């Protein structure tokens, strides 16, 4: 059967029956490559770590392909694996290294002319502002606002209750508001 | 302010995955499978091999010392008669 005609869940079941990375698993990688990469890139902020994380996500999906129980959508399950993998990598990388990478990005930014530099600046400002949050809150905000997940999906991805998700997002927003309310939008300055 | 700022998160550009992503993933998966199979061999195959060859070595030692060879097949034949 043509893998493109199957739903995610049917493909996952077919991949679980394969003994190696056969056509069903390859089709799953093809289907989720962009989405997993986007989550990894948004959570980790650079291509090298995102590449490493996205590959690790698919390796974990391969070895855990018979563990999908079908209680949620397969895509939500994949996003959960991606988030947990990225959080593990970020925790391992440590804050000091993240700070160095931001400084390195600033150096790169100063070498970019015009609009590209402004966009890069916007991205850096947003990401730097999010750095004041703890890892999970930061990931919750990114998945909610950048990836457009609703609270039910977030609850499944982060294995929290819906109310806990709402509360954590609300607190994270308050924290950002409190921390940056006195400062003019740095992102706006870059655009101006 | 926070809401405006958070809405802009979706506008951030995301780089495209590298062109060699699939090949790198395939290599990583193969490497991981090889390690897993080697560990499987070590955990399941090696104890069986050690037990099997260990018995042969013990019996060789017993035969060298006592000159007695415990042939299970002969014993089975004797019992059946």
| Beta content of chain B | under 5%
Q: What is the tally of helical segments of chain B? A: 3
On the 0 to 100 scale, the average pLDDT of chain B is 84
Per DSSP, what share of the residues of chain A sits in E-state strands of 2 or more residues?
Answer: under 5%
Secondary structural class of chain A: mainly alpha
Helix fraction of chain B, binned, reads over 70%
Protein structure class of chain B: mainly alpha
Give the biggest beta sheet of chain A: none
Greatest contact pair? A-B, 39 and 27 residues
Walkthrough of the structure:
The complex is a heterodimer of chains A (192) and B (81). With 192 residues, chain A is mostly helical. Chain A is 77% helix and 0% strand. Chain A is built from nine helices and no strands. Chain A has helices at residues 8-17, 23-44, 47-63, 74-110, 114-130, 135-146, 151-158, 162-180, 186-191. In chain A, helix 3 (47-63) packs antiparallel against helix 4, helix 4 packs across helix 7 (151-158) and helix 7 crosses helix 8. The model of chain A is unreliable at 106-117 and 185-192 (pLDDT under 50). Chain B is mainly α. Helices cover 75% and strands 0% of the residues of chain B. Chain B contains three helices and no strands. The model of chain B has no long low-confidence stretch (mean pLDDT 84). Classes of the chains: A mainly alpha (192), B mainly alpha (81). At the A-B interface, helix 2, helix 3, helix 5, helix 6 and helix 8 of A face helix 1 and helix 2 of B.
């Amino acid at each position: 059967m043509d893998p493109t005609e199957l739903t995610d869940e049917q493909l996952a079941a077919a991949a679980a029956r394969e003994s190696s990375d056969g056509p069903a698993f390859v089709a799953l990688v093809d289907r989720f490559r962009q989405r997993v990469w986007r989550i990894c890139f948004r959570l980790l902020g650079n291509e090298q770590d995102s590449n490493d994380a996205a590959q690790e996500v698919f390796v974990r999906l391969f070895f855990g392909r018979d563990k999908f129980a079908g209680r949620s959508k397969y895509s939500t399950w994949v996003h959960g694996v991606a988030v947990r993998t990225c959080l593990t990598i970020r925790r391992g990388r440590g804050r000091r290294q993240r700070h160095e990478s931001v400084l390195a990005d600033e150096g790169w930014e100063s070498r970019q002319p015009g609009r590209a530099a402004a966009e890069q600046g916007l991205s850096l400002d947003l990401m730097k502002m999010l750095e004041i949050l703890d890892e999970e809150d930061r990931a919750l905000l990114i998945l909610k606002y950048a990836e457009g997940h609703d609270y039910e999906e977030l609850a499944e991805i982060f294995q929290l209750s819906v109310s806990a998700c709402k509360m954590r997002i609300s607190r994270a927003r308050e924290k950002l508001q409190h921390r940056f309310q006195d400062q003019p939008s740095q992102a706006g300055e870059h655009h101006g | 302010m926070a809401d405006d700022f958070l809405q802009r998160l979706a506008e951030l550009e995301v780089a495209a995955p590298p062109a060699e992503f699939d090949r790198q993933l395939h290599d990583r998966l193969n490497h991981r499978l090889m390690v897993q199979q080697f560990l499987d061999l070590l955990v399941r195959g090696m104890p069986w091999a050690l037990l099997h060859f260990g018995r042969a070595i013990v019996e060789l030692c017993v035969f060298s010392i006592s000159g007695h060879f415990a042939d299970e097949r002969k014993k089975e034949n004797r019992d059946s008669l």
